User: What shape does this take?
Amino acid sequence: SMRVEAFVCPFCGALCDDIIVETGNNGDVKIENACVLGTRKIMARTRGRITKPMIGGKEVSIDEAIERAAEILVNAKKPLLYGFSSTSCEAHSAGIELAELVGGVVDCTSSVCHGPTILAIHEVGVPSVTLGEVKNRADLIIYWGCNPMHAHPRHMSRYSTFQKGRFRKGRISRKVVAVDVRPTESTKLADEFIQVEPNRDFEIFNAMRAILNSGDCRGDVIGGVPKEKLKKLVEEMKSCQFGVIFFGMGLTHTYGNYRNVREAILLVRDLNMYTKFAIIPMRGHYNVTGFNEVCTWQTGYPYAVDFTRDYPWYNPGETDANSLLIAEDVDAMLVIAADPAAHFPKQAVEYMKRIPLVVIDPFESLTSKLADVVIPAAIAGVEVEGSAYRMDGVPLRLKKVFEPPEGVLSDEEILKRIISKVKEFL
Ligand code: SF4
Assistant: This one.
């Protein structure tokens, strides 16, 4: 039996690091502190696993699968390596190296979630803080276009709304505002819910900046919100001691796209003339932030990096996975730690079916069903250690509680072995 404390939950971007996992001799497992999603991830290791390497649906040895994967990447003119949000930074580093070696493109799931956030940050920077500072200091918390109770179930209890902090007594010393297009289980927990019209966030932030900077704005109702309500909100933001906006895909995947986030950041920047204010994206998968970090160290760019010119080239909208698949501009694909067939538009998935596809994953998925080569992987953060970055950019060390199935390698080892094979071929 074994008891692992301060275990890091490898599911969502909140990366809770206070989980306790106890394993008994008779195979029973006890998990403390994790939410339903986290518990499910930690317990998932026995269900739906890919058990054997396969080529064309036939079981092969791991060496054969690795050799075939390397061959596919070397023979392609422009292979796409995609995924990475549910694996360790060590695997990211190897994946980026492999993409450069084979002269392909490397991209992560950012391009379909917070990619626009990153584009906004390129333009105007980001006044950010850690979740620890939010916990200890924030007296005004705004959740905008996100539903933490659904996607990051412990976010409100561990880092913000309900948590006690050094200078805050918990729920009573924090004001919580939720802004969304419809009521959700999270908006119910807020002191105030501001319902906005879909696709009008840019106008609302812009009006709030006008109110903050000049005392007034044009129009009586902006994006479905009466001006007086916005004035009250701006006053609350201006007069709090430490405020934070957490935002989700309600800003990044609606009209305005990265401009919404840009305007939200500019509002936060303006607010810092009066008080301390910060803004943090609610990053979804547990280590999508890690990929952006590692990719930036290694290539200078955070995602969607094209190596076909022998130097890194970055142009989201052209070099991201979806754009490349829809333009039929890649001729092979390796997917690791993600399930694009479940999330990409039909046109992109149809094209994925037509090109050689290698999938590395612990679990069967819609994508693994389409693959020509399937390589089973150990579950990062459950069966192998590694590093991951929380949504606020704080790196944490993933722990291991179980042994991987016999003969199953980690993502990092698989990628490193593909790299060695590719070097033999080149
Ligand atoms: Fe895991 Fe996220 Fe739940 Fe925390 S909130 S336990 S990181 S799934």
